[in-house]
Design goal:
single chain, 127 residues, six-stranded mixed beta sheet, four-stranded antiparallel beta sheet, globular
């Protein structure tokens, strides 16, 4: 059974940092790009960033560019999201997801192009 488990969320003050992890189990995702999304209360799910299956290319949203960094360790079947300079507007539940197509040669922001999703981890940033 495929499972994605996010961890590392919590409460921090503005300007602080957190590192989220997404551990995949059930099968290898080394040939799949991975993405992070977030959803704040009353808002739609929002694309945050993604990383190519090869690990060489990323696609951060403008809202997090220069502050958030996605990385992956294919030996551990794990994806990370390093979040620096956090703002209150970053408060949301953060989800990792797997691209539905293996070896896709571009990164996509569309949630409908991702199939497996984790349960989410809460990030709260106070001012």
């Amino acid at each position: 059974q495929v499972q994605l488990v996010e961890s590392g969320g919590g409460s921090v003050q503005a300007g602080g940092s957190l590192r989220l992890s997404c551990a995949a189990s059930g099968r290898s995702f080394n040939s799949y790009s991975m993405g992070w999304f977030r959803q704040a209360p009353g808002k739609e799910r929002e694309f945050v960033t993604a990383i190519m299956w090869s690990g060489g290319t990323t696609l951060p949203a403008d809202s997090v560019k220069g502050r958030f960094t996605i990385s992956r360790d294919n030996t551990r079947n794990t994806v990370y999201l390093q979040m620096n300079s956090l703002k209150p507007g970053d408060t949301a539940v953060y989800y990792c997801a797997v691209d539905r197509r293996p070896y896709r040669n571009y990164l996509t922001r569309s949630p409908s192009e991702y199939d497996y999703w984790g349960q989410g981890t809460q990030v709260t940033v106070s001012s």
